[in-house]
Design a protein that fits this description.
The chain has 417 residues and is an alpha/beta fold. The chain has 13 helices and 15 strands. The two termini are 25 Å apart.
Amino acid sequence: MKPTVVIMTLPLTPVALFGYGILRFLGQIDEEAYVRFTRTSSHHSDLFSCEENVVDLRLREGGLYSQVSKLVELNHSLKRALSFASFGNTSGENREVHTKLGSVLRKLNTANSREALHLTSQLIKKLADSNSDIWKSTKSLEILVENLESLVRQPQRSSYPGDKRILSLPVFQKKNGVRGTENDITNFFEVVLEEGRICSLQEKHISLVVGGPSGSGKSTLAVSIMAEMRNCIRTLQSRSSFADLELNVGLFTLDIGTPTTRAIAEGWGNDRERLERLKQPWSMKLAERLQRAFLESRDRCNITVADLPGRVTDITKMLVAPADAAIIISNDWSVMQQEWEPLMKELGVPVISKIRKRNSDEGVSSIVTSWQQGERLSGRVTALNRTQKSWDLFIQWLALFLLFDILPNKFGEEDIT
């Protein structure tokens, strides 16, 4: 089975662009594979991972050239095209067109980068079919650069409603470098969220995964975040300024081995006997089918929230690969730091919230503990007991910051599609 997910850096580099085109020509990647862009590079030496279900083209240029060149040893045109993408900026006319290519790639957003991949795949096929040497004639590359330049446009920000929402967040006094409880809050500060930014998420398709160890409450969290985002959207749609807002949020279970999200959403999350009957053993084929279904769900919804299996395995990596962002929850920070954060970093999936699960008998309440504007909102949540908790204060805050701050900053206004 060919890879279903391709991970690429944004902005594209010439060698990644040509590497993708060559792998398409060789049949290593088919046109139905989902391409996910990330700003995180990779130091891993292998192109394929997770039972060869994921191909990673984020390698540094030298490593990517080395890996792809092994696949084209006997094809002179493809090897010359790959070497040009890597080393064509050495001198003369070749250097000029190579420099132009790198420059225009840095100006492309994700939608235009997808078109660049398509155009380059056509160029690679043309070079291979005609047995052309791109070093000797750069005309075909010059045409590609001209086509890419025609795609570049200055982003036009629509006139969004000017509605604002003002919230107060706590300031903690740290004791011995550790953030404390409510008793250690020393002040507060006001945050102004521009609600109109949610409009930039229309026609986008963003997938969020919730990860954490078994028993961390990730399924309850996924259901609750989905429900509260829907509540926020319905509230906005009741205003005349947002009457035309069209945005849907979907729920998907990636933890099919222990499928609790539907049970929680339907109100029978604590029926353990019924849940036990729904469990099924994991296999790579099951994971492949689930990954494809996740991608289909992503295409249907503007925002899809999904819970992951409770262990970090190759299956979990395969299911994380298509995700655009991640929320991590655990009652043990060491597990989060040693297992879940490295997983997301490896696959280039940004973590937009880190949450500490606390029990109701610990005497603390749900609260925001830190905020990085446009990047992350973290805190703690209490009593995630397989009952939908969209009314929880932290979950309400997280839904607001996702819709009005984090997702528009990371995806909506960058034209992620």
